[in-house]
From TrEMBL:
Pathway: Pyrimidine metabolism; UMP biosynthesis via de novo pathway; UMP from orotate: step 2/2
Every Orotidine 5'-phosphate decarboxylase domain range: 20-265
Protein name as it appears in the record: Orotidine 5'-phosphate decarboxylase
Source species: Kitasatospora setae (strain ATCC 33774 / DSM 43861 / JCM 3304 / KCC A-0304 / NBRC 14216 / KM-6054) (Streptomyces setae)
Native organism taxonomy: Bacteria, Bacillati, Actinomycetota, Actinomycetes, Kitasatosporales
Annotated GO biological process: 'de novo' pyrimidine nucleobase biosynthetic process; 'de novo' UMP biosynthetic process
Top enzyme category: lyase
EC id: 4.1.1.23
Catalytic activity reported: orotidine 5'-phosphate + H(+) = UMP + CO2
Highest taxon of the lineage: Bacteria
Family, as annotated: Belongs to the OMP decarboxylase family. Type 2 subfamily.
SMART domains: OMPdecase (SM00934)
Active site: 99 (proton donor)
Alphabetic keyword roster: Decarboxylase, Lyase, Pyrimidine biosynthesis
A GO molecular-function annotation: orotidine-5'-phosphate decarboxylase activity
Length: 278
């Protein structure tokens, strides 16, 4: 039976009880090798299972990066399906990082893939790209509402190249990113304690320069390997820092394959974030 409690409500509880952290499951070939595994399907399976075993019962959010599973074709996707199911079963919220976005009728198929409870890839939330127009995401918004799921729309991404599109200013004087954030805020209006429609805002930004008060979660990739630290979060997110979900992949995963070392590394980030948010 699927829990249709809104994603934002479930996420608020997870962040408050487990700490503000999302760990990415990014099985880079180089990490598999560093773990003493082969860069093949068996290596992928062992890597993913170990991360889930180490972290799913203690970290608020696990974020599998779909690309690293898709590179092994259908058998890699089968590993992804098992990882998602096992992580959810162990108590983590699963945010599928697939960054989907297309015209509405195709978007409906993507939404069914990740947000329909009878799908083998059913996840608690999905990253989406609003760059075909925020309205093109409507089928995903509708299915998320219906099934208690969440969406994270790319607003200000952590990579330096994102700015040329996302900071562009339209005829109404607002940046593209600000327009995305306004649409998310409208979707979250009245939701308590937290809306289910989040934004991706990189922790690597010098400053956000937009209104981040969307009454929803702010996924902050870029902590760790991309150079940001917990200490950057108050500067970038200001009074919204309590709604931030800092996301770390390589800087935690490099501590494997030891389950204990993975747990310890994640706990260090949780503690560092707590120190700057309290
Ligand atoms: O703006 C964005 C959006 C998504 N990502 C994804 O997050 C992880 C980051 O991995 P690290 O190893 O912690 O750098 C990765 O899956 C990206 O695709 C992002 O980095 N920036």
């Amino acid at each position: 039976m699927t829990d249709t409690t809104p994603f934002g409500t479930r996420l608020r509880t997870a962040l408050d009880t487990r700490g503000q952290l999302c760990v990415g499951i990014d099985p880079h070939g180089s990490l598999l090798t560093a773990w003493g595994l082969n860069d093949d399907l068996a290596g992928l399976e062992t890597f993913s299972r170990t991360v889930v075993e180490a972290l799913a019962d203690r970290v608020a959010v696990l974020k599998p990066q779909a690309a690293f599973f898709e590179r092994f074709g259908s058998r890699g996707i089968a590993v992804l399906e098992r990882s998602v199911a096992e992580a959810r079963e162990a108590g983590a919220l699963v945010l599928m990082d697939a960054k989907r976005g297309d015209i509405g009728s195709t978007m409906a198929a993507y939404a069914e893939t990740f947000l329909a409870p009878d799908s083998p890839l059913f996840s608690d939330a999905l990253t989406v790209s609003p760059y075909l127009g925020f309205g093109s995401l409507q089928p995903a918004v509708d299915l998320a509402h219906a099934n208690g799921c969440g969406l994270f729309a790319l607003a200000l991404t952590s990579n330096p190249e994102g700015h040329e599109v996302q900071r562009a200013v339209g005829a109404d004087g607002q940046s593209v990113a600000q327009a995305v954030l306004r649409r998310l805020a409208a979707e979250n209006a009245g939701a308590e304690p937290l809306g289910s429609f989040g934004a991706v805002v990189g922790a690597t930004l010098a400053d956000a320069g937009v209104d981040l008060a969307i009454n929803g979660p702010l996924l902050a990739p870029g902590v760790g390997a991309q150079g940001a630290t917990a200490a950057d979060l108050p500067r970038v997110f200001g009074d919204q820092v309590r709604n931030v979900v800092p996301s770390v992949s390589r800087d935690v995963l490099k501590h494997g394959p030891s389950v204990q070392a993975l747990r310890q590394a994640a706990q260090v980030f949780v503690d560092d974030v707590r120190a700057v948010t309290n």
